[in-house]
Design brief:
- This protein has about 110 residues and is an alpha/beta fold.
- About 10% of the residues lie in helices and about 25% in strands.
- The chain has 2 helices and 5 strands.
- The strands form 2 sheets. Strands 1-4-5 form a 3-stranded parallel beta sheet, with no helix packed on it.
- The longest helix is centred in the middle third of the chain and has 8 residues.
- The protein is globular.
- The termini are far apart.
């Protein structure tokens, strides 16, 4: 893909890839079935991290104070248990579009 736009969940999930779900470590398939009854009662299909990481450009959108902890864990703590942390385009660009509230817990985001 030339461009993939992703959201960032409060729990660090992205693209319907949740922590501790087999989709998080899928290496062979382009898409995976995801069932997370804690989030909603519907099964989902997601593209896998190898597909995301082969994009020319990946953009994360995160806004609001409810995302601040996840933003910090992904960008500063680099918590490998969070799927969003594993988004690292191989030969592409990674861009974060984050509002002031979502960036409020970052050490360089304080005024």
């Amino acid at each position: 893909f030339d461009l993939i736009m992703l959201g960032l969940g409060e729990d660090g999930h992205t693209g319907s890839i949740f922590s501790d779900d087999p989709a998080m470590t899928e290496k062979k398939h382009l898409v995976a079935s995801v069932s997370n009854k804690m989030i909603d009662e519907h099964d989902r299909v997601t593209i896998t991290l190898p597909v995301i990481n082969n994009a020319k450009c990946v953009i994360f959108l995160a806004n609001g104070t409810r995302k601040a902890e996840a933003v910090k864990k992904v960008l500063e703590d680099k918590d490998p248990s969070l799927p969003a942390t594993l988004v690292k385009p191989t030969d592409g660009e990674l861009i974060y579009l984050i509002d002031r509230e979502a960036a409020s817990l970052l050490s360089n985001g304080k005024e």
